[in-house]
Amino acid sequence: VPELKINELRASVEGKEILKGVNLTVRGGEVHAIMGPNGTGKSTLASSLMGHPKYEVTSGTVSLDGEDLLEMSVDERARNGLFLAMQYPSEIAGVSNANFMRMALNAKRGEGNEIPVLKFHRELQNKMKSLSIDTAFAERYLNEGFSGGEKKRNEILQMSVLEPRIAILDEIDSGLDIDALRIVADGVNALRGPAFGLLIITHYQRLLQYIVPDHVHVMMQGRIVRSGTRELAEELEARGYDWLKDELGIED
Ligand code: ADP
Ligand code: MG
Ligand code: MG
């Protein structure tokens, strides 16, 4: 079973500490949601796990299936089964979407185990159909001129093609209308199972009505300050965050 284990993680951006000791374990079969007010470090957590050079991990540990994630290059993280939507470049001139995904998949499968081209295209077509993505999309250059909604759907397509062990989705709901949100959620839910663990980051509870989490965590000021079930998300939707700040004695 896949396992991403974050222990007392601290990280800084431009010399300022943003993550102040994050603890979280995501295992295969589980969907965890992180919610929280704006500017509390949710995206910083995603970027730090991705290995973004701007985010400096200053202490703590992260392991993926028992191996030190922080020692891995961004490529190695992907090859070891970690998926982050933002991991993949927003635009690569002259590379089609389909070819890009085939290269990424083959890099993950390893030399000598490349997927046959025809098989890849057949599976890609099926996945595109299930995500209601126009098949012409495959031959377009990666992300060039994609609308906001197309980019989000494409991220989910990339994820279903790569079949990661652990995925982190940061605000995949932003800018999506309700129909697009349903399609994206269906795509994510299709991957759910014991071989797949998911961490979704969202500001709003709406997404969690479609991708129902097993665990909900609230991040404030760079830490997870409360964990619960989906009822916690509903409570935050109904009551906002201030009551929790009051309860915890957090001032902003
Ligand atoms: P959230 O995703 O919870 O809204 P972020 O992780 O984006 O919060 O931001 C947390 C804090 O870190 C904010 O104060 C933000 O200004 C700062 N920060 C995040 N990324 C950068 C960056 N690339 N450069 C400078 N400051 C950043
Ligand atoms: Mg934000
Ligand atoms: Mg964010």
From TrEMBL:
CDD domains: ABC_FeS_Assembly
Superkingdom of origin organism: Bacteria
PROSITE patterns cross-referenced by the UniProt entry: ABC_TRANSPORTER_1 (PS00211), ABC_TRANSPORTER_2 (PS50893)
Record-linked InterPro entries: AAA+_ATPase (IPR003593), ABC_transporter-like_ATP-bd (IPR003439), ABC_transporter-like_CS (IPR017871), FeS-cluster_ATPase_SufC (IPR010230), P-loop_NTPase (IPR027417)
Keywords carried by this UniProt record: ATP-binding, Nucleotide-binding
Pfam families referenced in this protein's UniProt entry, alphabetically: ABC_tran (PF00005)
ABC transporter domain sequence ranges: 4-246
Molecular-function annotations in GO: ATP binding; ATP hydrolysis activity
Coiled-coil residues: none
NCBIfam families given in the database record: sufC
Similarity comment text for this entry: Belongs to the ABC transporter superfamily. Ycf16 family.
Protein name: Fe-S cluster assembly ATPase SufC
Organism of origin: Ferroacidibacillus organovorans
Lineage: Bacteria, Bacillati, Bacillota, Bacilli, Bacillales
